[in-house]
Amino acid sequence: MSTEILELVVFKSAAYTADQAALEAKILPEYKNGDYGVINRYKGVNPLDPNEHCWIIIWKAREGLDKFGKEKAATALGPLFPLFEGPPDIHSIPLNGQDYRKALAAPVVSLSYATPKEGVARETLAPLVENLLAYQSQVKGTHGIVRGQIHEKPGSSVTIIGWDSAEAHQAAAKEERVAAIIAPLREQLSELKAKDMTLKQVD
Q: Which Gene3D superfamilies match (predicted)?
């Protein structure tokens, strides 16, 4: 059974910062020129680094995302890649019925990437992650959580949380209970990184 897919593209580009409208005029129509099943699109910027941007695309199914990649990525979007300051990070996760709208509509959206140490089973991580997410979902200032396994990087995951503000996110991260919950999780991870973005939906 097909499930909606959230694709996350993070990149740095001073050229895009300087003239977003011109580049978007080349990019945005390509998602509409074809039966790809694009449901929603969002763009965002890192408030701490104005040259770091992200795009989030919601696809009806992975088949549409794969079709777009084969038909458009190299030809229509390929010429834009030289404007990026390094390769973009492109990941996708199955939504499996999760409602992404509330989290992505929040004033600030945190993107967290986690990669387990070699040999650590998903069954080991699952209760630790669920414990953390259960607590974070009740923290003051949150606006929904979306999480999924990264298709392009098996074993790794992305967690997206909406917040009232960057300050609310920082305050929650400093709470003693969060530190106690996340400590055993960190022991099982080779990588845990996070960044905040401010998003807006685009037509």
A: 3.30.70.100
